[in-house]
Amino acid sequence: MLRATGLGKSVPGGRVLFAGLDLAVHAGEVIAITGESGVGKSTLLNLVAGLDRADAGRISIGGTDLALLDDDARTRLRRSRIGFVFEAFHVLPHLDLARNVALPLVLSDVPAAAALAGAEAMLGRVGLGGRGGDYPAALSGGELQRVAIARALVHRPALILADEPTGNLDPETAQRVLALLLEQARGAAAAVVIVTHSHAVAAACDRTLVLSAGGLG
Questions:
Q1: Which of 150, 191, 175 is nearest to 25 (CA)?
Q2: Predicted pLDDT at 199
Q3: Angle at 194 between CA 182 and CA 94, to 5 degrees
Q4: What residues contact 72, with CB distance under 8 A and at least 6 apart?
Q5: Per-residue pLDDT reduced to its tens digit, 39-72
Q6: 21-27 long-range CB contacts below 8 Å, 24 or more apart?
Q7: Structural domains in the chain?
Q8: Strand, helix or coil at 113?
């Protein structure tokens, strides 16, 4: 589902984050990427998502080579095939929960009524059934992360990218949120890449890879 070969990326000033990076993730597989702060873990996710361009190497998602896509085509691929779960939730405060979760569907031109129905169904799957009319300000951190998971999964993406998805949660809530993410992702046979500093999160994944300047190992 995801293949990266020979990836290299430097930051302004010339410091090499990583070089010669190879990665393959299959449908239904969950991998964790760990490493020291500043080594480029979030940058790697941005490259995979097509939000940034590598200095060297190639990335393909479901057989589609990102290097062959222009910006509009990359945006369409993100909307249709990728789901994001972020540490800071990125739930929009001015939208109710159903409209937050429906955003990936709306952006993919799904009619509004169908998008909201899909969002309500997904909220039910993450334990927030009947809460679609609530606003983010009324939710706890764990509930907000469940909304973020619902939004990432509502359009049934082939690839899920999660950047420190439990970093802002207490240990008990983090455990529940992680279990929910993995359950829903595996049920949809999605490939999942989780960037994390948490040993507990890494232990729950199928594989753990350590990112360094020399790549993944």
A1: 191
A2: 92
A3: 80
A4: none
A5: 999 999 999 999 999 999 999 999 999 999 999 9
A6: 21/57, 21/211, 21/215, 21/216, 22/215, 22/216, 23/209, 23/216, 25/1, 25/159, 25/191, 25/192, 25/193, 26/1, 26/191, 27/1, 27/158, 27/189, 27/190, 27/191
A7: 28-53+78-216 (3.40.50.300)
A8: helix
CA dist 85 and 93 (Å) reads 17
Determine the 3-state secondary structure of 7 from DSSP.
Answer: strand
Rounded distance between C-alpha atoms, residue 88 and residue 65, angstroms: 29
- How many C-beta atoms lie closer than 10 Å to residue 76's C-beta? 13
How distant, in Å, are the alpha carbons of 68, 82, 101, 110, 155 from that of 114?
A: 32, 20, 12, 7, 12
CA distances (Å), 60 to each of 37, 79, 107, 140, 153, in order? 26, 16, 22, 37, 20
Cβ pair 25, 36 in contact under 8 A: no
E-assigned strand segments in 44-168: 56-61, 64-65, 82-86, 159-163
- Tokens representing residue 22 in the block: 């190879």
Report pLDDT digits (tens) over 179-214: 988 988 888 899 999 999 999 999 999 999 999 988
